Amino acid sequence: MARIEQERLNGRQLWFPDVTDERWNDWRWQLGHRLTDISELAGLLDPSPEDRALLNERNAEMRVATTPYYLSLADPADRNDPVLRQVVPDLREFKKAPGDREDPLGEEADTPVKGVVHKYADRALLMTTNFCPVYCRHCTRRRKWKEDENARSPGEIEVMLDYVAGRSEIRDVLISGGEPLALPTTILKRLLDGLVSIRHVEIVRIATRCPVVLPQRFDDELLRLFSERLPLWLVTHFNHPKELTPESAAACRKILKSGVPIANQTVLLKGINDDAETMMDLCRGLLRMGVKPYYLFQCDPVAGTSHFRTSPFRGVEIIAAMRGRVSGLAIPTFAVDTEGGGKVPMAPDGVVEVSPRELVLRNYEEKLFRYPMPGKEE
Predict the structure, then answer these.
(1) Are residues 42 and 118 in the same domain?
(2) How far is C-alpha 239 from the geometric centre of its chain's CA atoms?
(3) Structure pTM?
(4) How many CA atoms lie within 13 A of 230 on its CB side?
(5) Residue 127: beta bridge partners?
(6) 258 & 206 share domain
């Protein structure tokens, strides 16, 4: 943690030496000073003149942005820095691998009204914005980057709320985007108030990467809003131990104190977190911050992201390597999200043999154990 802290301070001193603490800790300043110039961001990885020219030429096809805070976590001397690789544009994004799709989860087909994705009967996803403080290069919703940055209008939000209110089977609502917490708190209040007033909605979740890329967002006004509208869950997206900073830990502590539990969804990314040691460091660190590792997702086959994807069996191997070496609380569920069919868990197979009398099981040490099958009482 000390090394990460020093790298963070070095990054801030290198790129933002004259920014006062008052400004640095203001989420509106961070959001208003995102780095959005493709040449500037691409230049951090020192591309060849030819590659830089190609990136500039295709600038209109890409959307790039990072907050000053998130960029400060990167090591500019490391071309494979896990923070830089998540935000710096890459020419490989213009390559389409077999099986790549613009909408790999089939969300558009499950959109009954604008902004609502209704895939599972008892759950609905509300896409409140199509913009983010940071544009992750592995983003599932890259197709939205072609649109202008915008948020749902008050009228569109009312239509979304009406849809949820009119379907009593919906018990769980996920507020997503884009980045929903980039919205003004007044708009978030209207949205949360509307959902809380719907009697059949039992759980509201907010999907946000702000604890990772904009921890300054969790000011007193937002935390008060959270605490007054429980039950509420926050689902965030840490991918690498470098993202576990004092600022992110402080943000998570404040969220937890407001009464909101936090779960984390990590995406398995080639060359960033696709080894067991990195994943164990990440998940142990999340638990220390009070965040439950929830899912480890196979990277979706989004057009332009094939260079991030590993074999799905790599995720199974990582989970197997974690078993017996970290707390069970630190082990996420590894899953592949499918087009129109939801999440399919994949796990190491511990069943060696099945008979009417017993199961033969293999544990994390490759030792075999026998479990008697229940039978008729004598």
Answers:
(1) no
(2) 8
(3) 0.91
(4) 11
(5) 176
(6) yes
